[in-house]
């Protein structure tokens, strides 16, 4: 991926986090955050990253919790304890965009589309499965 495209994507992701952490988020921005987590997961599975599966699950749970709050109160905010999790995942994804070949990024996007078209609750396994591939 060329540097300009990677920087543009990174800026978009970091702005989404900044807006969601300040309580000015919306459904689109929260979808953007979970999308980044899933793409980072798929890229990690392709060999680009070593973040623990728990970090990904914490991000997923934080978005689910925020969506539940928004459904009840129309308040779109990311829980304070989830912010460091997303900061780690965004830093990882920035590094992935800088090192993974474009075809791997495109493959991760394709995997995300496949997941979204399916019925699985998550592409990320539960951490207690204990397999080395989850770490």
Précis, in short:
It comes from Paraburkholderia panacisoli. With 135 residues, the protein is mainly α.
Mean pLDDT: 92
Structural category is mainly alpha
- Helix residue percentage: 55-70%
Number of helices: 5
Order of helices and strands: HHHHH
Task: Quote the distance from N terminus to C terminus.
Answer: 26 Å
Strand proportion, as a percent range, falls in under 5%
Relevant terms:
135 residues, mainly alpha, 0% strand
Describe the fold and architecture.
This is Fis family transcriptional regulator. By secondary structure, the chain is mostly helical. It has one domain. The protein contains 5 helices and no strands. The model has no long low-confidence stretch (mean pLDDT 92).
SSE map:
Layout: H1 3-21, H2 27-45, H3 53-73, H4 83-99, H5 102-117
Helix pairs in contact: 1-2, 1-4, 2-3, 2-4, 2-5, 3-4
Protein name: Fis family transcriptional regulator
């Amino acid at each position: 991926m060329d540097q300009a495209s990677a920087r543009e994507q990174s800026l978009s992701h970091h702005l989404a986090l900044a807006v969601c952490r300040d309580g000015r988020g919306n459904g689109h921005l929260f979808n953007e955050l979970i999308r980044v987590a899933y793409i980072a997961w798929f890229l990690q599975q392709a060999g680009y990253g070593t973040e623990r599966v728990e970090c990904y699950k914490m991000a997923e749970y934080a978005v689910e919790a925020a969506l539940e709050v928004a459904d009840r109160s129309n308040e779109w905010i990311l829980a304070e304890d989830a912010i460091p999790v997303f900061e780690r995942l965004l830093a990882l994804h920035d590094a992935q965009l800088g090192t993974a070949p474009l075809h791997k990024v495109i493959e991760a996007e394709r995997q995300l589309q496949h997941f979204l078209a399916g019925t699985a609750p998550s592409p990320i396994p539960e951490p207690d499965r204990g397999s080395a591939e989850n770490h």
